[in-house]
Structure formats: C-alpha cells, structure tokens
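Morning, I've got a small favour to ask if you have a moment. I owe you a coffee for this, so here goes:
>
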Amino acid sequence: MKLTNQQKGSLLAFTAVVLITPDSLFVRLSHIDTWGMLFYRGAIPFVVVLLGLFMIYKMNFFKLLFSMGHAGIAYAIIFSVTNVTFIISIQNTNVANTLIMIAMAPMLSAVLAALFLKENPDKKTWITIFITFMAVTYIFYDSIKLGNFFGDIFGFFTAAGLAIGAIVVRSAKDKNLVPSAVIGKLLVAIFALFFVKNFELVETDIYIVPLMCVLCVAIPFVLITIAPRFITAAEVNLFFLLETILGPIWVWLIIKEQPSLETIQGGALIITAIAIHSYLSLKKNTN
C-alpha cells in the first residue's frame, strides 16, 4: 500500500515522539552533570547517525552535506541550541513543567508558518492548537506556583527552537537536512566539551546513557527532521504534545515524581485532541 504524504509525515512524527517519551526519565535516572549529559547526547548520536548515513550514501554523503545551503547551516545551529536548552530545563524544573512548555511548539509553528511560509493551518489544526494551548495553560497555572522560573524559561526556549527548526525544514523540504542535524549534534558535543569535568559513566549510567542517546535521541531526531518534508510544521509539533503527558507518566511510574491532577486532566485532553486531529487528517487524505 502506497502511503500519502500526510500518512508518511504523521507516521514519522508519531514514531519519533513515542521513542522520545522515556527521554526525561533516563535524564532523571542518570548521575552525570548537565555538561556531561550534553556531551554524550551530542557525541553518541553524532557517531551513530553519521555511520548510518555513510552506510546509506557512502561518499555521496559529502555531496549531500554541502548541498544543504543556508537552510542546513540555520538548522544545525537551531538544532544544537534546542538540545542545550532542553537539558538545562529538565535539570532545573520538574519533568512535567519542561514538557508543558514544549507543548507550546505547535502554536508557535503555526504562527511562524503563517508569517513566513504563507502556509496557513486549516481550521481543525487551529482548533486543536487552541484546545491544547488551553490545556497547557490549565496545567501550567498550578505548577507555576512552585517557582521553577529558570527551568521553565529554558523549556519555552526549547519550544521556540522546535518551532523554528520545523519551519526551516519545511521551507527547504526539497533538501535532506538530516546531515545538518548530525552537525548540530557535533556542535553540542564540542560546546559541552569545554565545561565537562568528568567523563566517567558510573553505576547504571554505563547502560542508561548509551541507550538514551540511541533510542531516545539518535533515531527520533532523524525521523523528526524528515517529517516536515511531508506534513506542516504545526502538525509535526502537535505530536510532541503526546510527550507532555506520556513523559511525566514514565517518570511517575519509575521514580514516583508524581504529576499533579491538573497535569493528568490536561494531558488527557491533549491526547484526545491530537487523536481526533490525526484521525480527521488521515481520513481526509485517504478519501
């Protein structure tokens, strides 16, 4: 069965976000500091995906790399900055707060796409964005009282980075920007290298860190870089809202960092809205 662009993009984005959902849990379970975490999250995915690209494209990889132009440079920088802000956020506030802030990415993507790409989201996408934004506001209203402003603001920067990155990929959908994301990971590793005090992985970190870097970072970032070539940036980032509820649930189940009732209620609304939006989009494109 031949998949439509809508089905391809939705499948790629959904798979990526499902793999990302345990990411926050792995960050919490690790014992290394922020800069050590950033170094490994840059270096390991860089090596893994680079080897994969060489296996697929062989020496044509360099031709692909140098053909990306300004979009490739912009995406590499945005991608690397977003990686840094996510880790700073997750280590300076609770998981639910970070993921709630990231849930603002679809709204930001829709606004940016309308302004710069003249790609106005359809009515159902705007309705879904509005519903999920209200759910995020409901969740955040309770958690803001905890005073985690520093971590929360970096969570917002992460959302902005995801939105801008998706717009860049969408604007250059005729180009493969996966090599650009690989360079972004290299930039993260190099940046963190100046601040790392200890590279040693102790206790369970020997298993947790490599697993996290491959399963929750390397594979998803390839999928999420490709997805906007098939569906709009706003639709791609809508799938990240799944992490808003599933991420805290993983943390809750394993290390008992319990989300609030507001997070559970708002998260249920987010999942319902995304499910209906995805169903209607897929149904429309198969008729």
Notes: The mean pLDDT is 82. The CA atoms of residues 4 and 137 lie 34 Å apart.
